[in-house]
User: Fold this.
Amino acid sequence: MKKLTKEHIEDLYAFTIKHYVEHYDLQTEMVDHMANGIEAIWEKYPALSYLEARKKAFKKFGIFGFMEIVAERQKAMQKRYYKYLLKELRIWFKLPKIIVSITLFWVFYTAFSLIISSYLLITFFALIGIWTLYKSIQLHRQFRRRKEKSNKKWLLEEIIFKQSTGMGIIFFSQIFNIINFSDKLFTSHYGIISVSIVAVILTMVIYISFELLPKKSEVLLNETYPEYSL
Amino acid sequence: MANAKLYKGSLVTIILKLLKESEKMYGYEITQKVKALTKGELNITEGALYPALHKLEAKGLLDVEVIKVDNRLRKYYKLTEKGDKETINKLHELQEYIKTMQVLVNPKLSI
Assistant:
């Protein structure tokens, strides 16, 4: 029975890249599937060339090729990322870290109870803004260096290192709403409590996505991809 | 091939059931096994299989293992403990569905 050579496998990797499979994790799975398909075709039609068999095997993926699989994989991995984020967030609401959360809440509550609360809220946003911008640039650079070093791009890795920027954008898209409503929010006791709770959660989400998860990336990648350290 | 739409809703159950019967399986193997078991009646498309596998993996129902086979890497899927429980639920759901459909399409049989 005809078997694929190492060169064929390399060609299949290039083939997946050409068909918009950017990430190594999915490339590997698609390469193996295509390889199995080609070898099965050869069993039936041994006279077919590699390229002919490859074309026939790829036809089974339909007119959209790998695109549907790529899109769905992205969604699934995104969910996994949020799961990791939520897992980390929960820790801050359990002992011993809940002490830090309560202290942070108290700091925000005290600050937002002052007459200058609106200015403090703007300062809070400005500080987080500068920090997230700085971290985004740093993480993007780190991601580029990692990719250059290994020559491989993993989907979860890209989400960890680039996703946080998206978080920052969502966060700051709300800044004008918050500033506009700040006068009304700070007039009531419950308003101050609500803003302080939101500020605590936002600080944590930003800290987890920009600092904690990138630092833990090696552990998370090894946990997600058994082939990561192969 | 029979009406693919009718099978679509049962794809996850089919995958889980196959994985329950064998220790671990890879994507291509699943498509071939289904084809063989149903004598070509059901053909799971690649575009439906992999998204389903990846969703199940993200939900924590499947665990993965990667092994080097020949000169390439192969990704195997296996049921987690949570996946095992879900398989039982899904199979029960499917059996109930089949029963209900039988009552509807063949009322005499159900009496």
